[in-house]
Amino acid sequence: MNPPTSIPPSRAPYAAALLGALLYVAGFFLQLATPHRATAIVLRLAALLLLLLFTSTRKSLTAWTLFAMLAGAELGADAPRVATQTHILGEIFLRLIRVIAAPLILGTLSTGIAGHGHLRRIGPLALKTLLYFEAVTTVGLILGALAINLTRAGVGVVLPASLAANAPVAAPRGWEQIVLNAFPENLALAVAQNQILQIAVFALLFGVALAMLPEAKRAPLLSLLQSLTETMFQITRLVMYFAPIAAGAAIAYTVGSMGVATLIPLAKLVATYYGALLVFVLFFLLPVMLLSRIPVRRFLAAAGEPVAIGFATSASEAALPLALERMEEFGVPRWIVSFVLPLGYSFNMDGSSVYLSIGAIFTAQAAGMHLTVGEQAVMLLTLMLASKGIAGVPRATLVLLLATASSLHLPTAPVFLILGVDALMDMGRTAMNVFGNCLASAVIARWEAPLQDPA
Fold first, then answer.
1. What pLDDT is recorded for position 171?
2. Which fold has domain 86-448?
């Protein structure tokens, strides 16, 4: 008689994770389909215990962040009053990240240019980078338009009359203001307002000027900046220990303040957006990785943690310090990653591009407006120009969509309707922005020179 089969100890955590995931999904749908709320809660809590068993065997920041997000969602669903009080933890994390971002960009970009003799390569690098950004974001806009035209998620949506009652008037920015806003008027003000592009422009000029100095005058300041950069990276590692707690708090606040029920009327819009992002990754970004000979599995491992941080916090800036460090570890030279990533925060918002075209056409559909192909082409062109210079802060793209609604001759009421589920869409939008910028740094590095072996 054969002995009973058992799960090998090495596979037990994976079995627990799989069972936990199935129980969590079952508990979620049980609560939606039946009035047995207590049973659904018990299932999800049991699932969290099983997932904790798996996570406790992992040393990965991504695993702990994802577990914290699920736990935070459960707290928000079961105890919304408590969950809304956890927002302070996410704000503390964002403040710590903001205080790191400016000196980190200044140090990495300046030392990358002045310390490695890449002064003559900055011009061609900038041109290649901007061309890549424009190509990728244009594809994102077109894909979003195709997706929303296919699903027609805005058709038949009922608009409450109260939505537009207190709609603020937001004027779209002209190209002159976009260009002017790229240049810092005051460095301290740029740091205080977290103007990442302005800080990067100053760091670029500072690095070029430092590279032009004689060696005797350049060396002391260069050494100081290198020490500053390494110190900022070390602070980043310390702050990231707090990331899972902040991620869980952010999700708890979102679910607790918004409620899962608000998703149901606009579920088709949310599904359209995430479906478009999946298609964007599989049928565009993945081929870009393969054509550029980027090692896909190693890249996904490197970008996973910054993407998870971006998804949980809905703030691209929260992932910037970790993205800089992980991409350098992946093999992207420091002078390239410190140039491409900050620039991408204004010009390479992949997730935002998909969102903008979906949001704009959804607005027209919800208002009962029929747009011809030509009108949609003009709309995409307008969005392509207006989207440049988006700040890497939560909800910035929604503000931009509202600001450009008047120039696109769209009503504002449907834009406010999107606000009900924007928090859920913003998580995917931010994660895609971070992923796209990490990939951009790897692709540009591959064009410039072979990727360096990880240390």
1. 47
2. Proton glutamate symport protein (1.10.3860)
